[in-house]
Automatic annotation (TrEMBL):
Gene3D superfamilies: Jelly Rolls
Taxonomic source organism: Aeoliella straminimaris
SUPFAM superfamilies registered for this protein in UniProt: RmlC-like cupins
Pfam family membership, one: Cupin_5
Protein name: Cupin domain-containing protein
Length: 167
C-alpha cells in the first residue's frame, strides 16, 4: 500500500522549505571545491554535490526561484510533478516529472543554472515526492527568490505562470 504524504514527511524527517513544500538534505559530499577553482558566480567553497528529498502536497507549490548551479530532479512517488522553468532568455519550459512515459512524463529532469523555476503537483489532491541533486553543492547563498513584481517586470509575457508560482 502506498504511503501517504504525512507518512513520507514523518519517515524522512522532512521540514518546511522556504519556497514551499517539505525537505531534508539527504546528502552532502565530504569533499569540497576551493573558491579559486569555482566560476566567479560563487562566493566561497562548495561541497562537490548535495541532494535533498522534497515533497509538495495538494494546493502547495514551490515558488519561483533560481540557483547558481544546474539542479537535477528525480521523481520518487506520488502524483506527477510539473516543474515550470523560465530560462534566462525568457523561454518557458515545463518538465513533467513522473512514471508515465507515454504521457510525456520523465523520472529525471534538469533545470539549467540561472533559470527561474518552481513546481506544483499535477493533480489537485495528490502529493509528489522527488529528490533534487546539485553540483557544486547547494548553499543558501546560491538561492534567490524575487518578488512577484520583480519577475513580472522582467518576464511580462509569463504573467499567468508568475502569478501562480509566487506568494
Amino acid at each position: 500500500m502506498p504511503l501517504s504524504q504525512e507518512q513520507w514527511i514523518e519517515a524522512l524527517s522532512l521540514a518546511p522549505h522556504p519556497e514551499g513544500g517539505w525537505f531534508r538534505e539527504a546528502y552532502r559530499a565530504s569533499e569540497s571545491i576551493p573558491r579559486d577553482a569555482l566560476p566567479e558566480r560563487f562566493t566561497g567553497e562548495r561541497s562537490f554535490s548535495t541532494s535533498i528529498y522534497y515533497l509538495l502536497g495538494p494546493g502547495d507549490f514551490s515558488a519561483l526561484h533560481r540557483i547558481r548551479q544546474d539542479e537535477l530532479w528525480h521523481f520518487y512517488d506520488g502524483s506527477p510533478l510539473l516543474v515550470e522553468v523560465i530560462h534566462p532568455d525568457g523561454r518557458a519550459e515545463q518538465l513533467k516529472m513522473g512514471r508515465d512515459l507515454s504521457a510525456g512524463q520523465t523520472p529525471m529532469g534538469v533545470v539549467p543554472a540561472g533559470s527561474w523555476f518552481g513546481a506544483h503537483v499535477a493533480t489537485e489532491d495528490g502529493y509528489s515526492l522527488v529528490g533534487c541533486t546539485v553540483a557544486p553543492g547547494f548553499d543558501f547563498e546560491d538561492f534567490e527568490m524575487p518578488s512577484r513584481a520583480e519577475l513580472l517586470e522582467q518576464f511580462p509575457s509569463h504573467r499567468k505562470l508568475i502569478e501562480r508560482l509566487t506568494r
